[in-house]
């Protein structure tokens, strides 16, 4: 049996990397760029999610959805979203009515291809990876651990590595009551999912529930609750790891073992990473950890597992599961033999017997079935492909398959009365969650059957009927889940408060800030800000708030004293991009900055939460923050503060005071031409005084080099934003040399000068200008400059565009003439009063910059 793909048309790319790399988004973009395409997904839920996205882009008439239980296939469909089992791929032993749809696509993609190692479904992913091809482009999406197998099995494939957009870090173990908002808890049984959701209802006000067995409608409704913020927590099975896009900040594992259908085993590291990778979205970082229950710390990750997940480093896969797609339908015995055939490639291991093969072998024990040949054998194998949605096992599932086969064996149809009776029996929205979920699993089997055009006399009618029943059951299950797991706090606590009075209630504050009244958590104390549990009703909130605040005074004063006696490192400049600017302690905002006497002396406005402090504690904390702010200003922008002081110091001459006043008011940076008048009045001692004040009189700008350090730039930008009443700008990465043209406001707020489509940091622009003047000084005639006035090494390292370089040279005072640079004699330096020629100045300036 060969391991090579049946076709090798078009470009084949393997896009490999950890979760949260945008691989699925890439596949959608690439497919929509082609005239037609197909993508195979590991889950029906994910196929449906992507189908909805592509419909918005291309319209319903252009897009098809093909899964075992759902088929939406407009005649004009060009883009097909499928489960891997339902992908319309050519097969030498195709079953009539199966793999419907066009076989020739311009684009083809297989998602989560590393699932070729899954004992149950791996052979399907392997088959699609080896045989499914687009005539123009094929994408194989999966984990980086798949790379060596792709290289050996598909040597023509181009391998593209995708890094994760955000950072994933281990957050340790946490109790259920202390999980951060926007957390997903992952369990490995329906019973545990329901138990955790019930506890979250009591502790946190509710949770959404997501399981693979839910219908897409139920799953979407539950996820929407979570995404809208109606609940801050989500409890899910490991199905959440298969690419479903949700805004999750933290993933907590309720266990690290699962039953895989054969035995209870520990999750593999790639499985852990697949689930943990749901934390963080796009460029927002995420964390993962474990859940402690019943006073225990919960399951524990090993150091090896934590490092592998955080660094996205996994042991390369050394095999995939494989099952032959070239089946022999001579008779049932030959069919079983072909299904159990082995590949001659050592990388392709025989797939463990699946439930379809187990059912086939069970039915083959009947001689009447074992003698079936040709088309009858094909129909038998198609019937064995009915998924065991009810999870009843091979022997019980075989009974249903046998009855179906008895109807379709000789080309007949399933009895109308039997089908109608079974669907009608399931069309019942009464009962609890377990009963509704069981009926949903049952109707999925009939929905699968209804989409087999050769099994029913009226397949379209029954497909619509089963879809209607599934929708009704989905709505009922969503309502039941919401009622059970998202009910607000019962009136029991409120009645207890009313009977005993607020003052009599024991109020406790946990180490993590959780405030409880008796056994019930009622809110959280974050820093100095107390917030009532958002799940409490409005009438309850007032009573709970009064009960808590009467007892929180001592705790708040204790926290204030702890801060004033603590280290400076506990305080930070609070300056989120686009937000207010202030002072935070331990991550909590305590005061906002407002315009003050000067740029380096902003005013301090404490937040309302500090009003709950006693007067002495509030006064002491405010004085400590003012002192801290003064020290930080001196540390990070002290040279700017010294300019402010020099502007009023009589020791300096009027030109120096005028220049330092203007420079200090501008935040330590001004174009040289804006200071032409005071610069023209400077004599040598005045220039020496400015040098001591660390002022650089550059060719293009006058600036203070120390203010260009990353943290100094952050403080300078914050102080300028405070004085102007603007929010904190988004800062470039530390040490960035060049900004794009979109950063117009940043260039002015920080220390960048614009040259065409780029902004260049002023010290680098001054370095290039100084180099040019050095070259000019070496040629005293002032005509054409034989030496190259451009520091080519620096220009290359900066990646400066030709347009930006030409603009910089023009501002310096040069023009390009016949392939050489000439001095125009109109540089702004000459607009001030004439200076005696000092050829050494250019060299000194350049040397100073290099220092």
TrEMBL record:
Occurrences of domain Helicase C-terminal (ranges): 171-328
The name under which this protein is listed is Helicase
Which UniProt keyword terms apply here?
Answer: ATP-binding, Helicase, Hydrolase, Nucleotide-binding
Q: Name one Pfam family in it.
A: Helicase_C
Please report the stretch or stretches of sequence annotated as the Helicase ATP-binding domain. Answer: 4-164
InterPro entries assigned to the protein according to its UniProt record, in alphabetical order: DEXQc_SUV3, Helicase_ATP-bd, Helicase_C-like, P-loop_NTPase, RNA-DNA_Helicase
Top-level taxonomic group: Bacteria
Organism in which the protein naturally occurs: Sphingomonas humi
The question of whether Methyltransferase is a record keyword is answered with no
Is ATP-binding among this UniProt entry's keywords?
Answer: yes
* Gene3D superfamilies reported in the protein's UniProt record: P-loop containing nucleotide triphosphate hydrolases
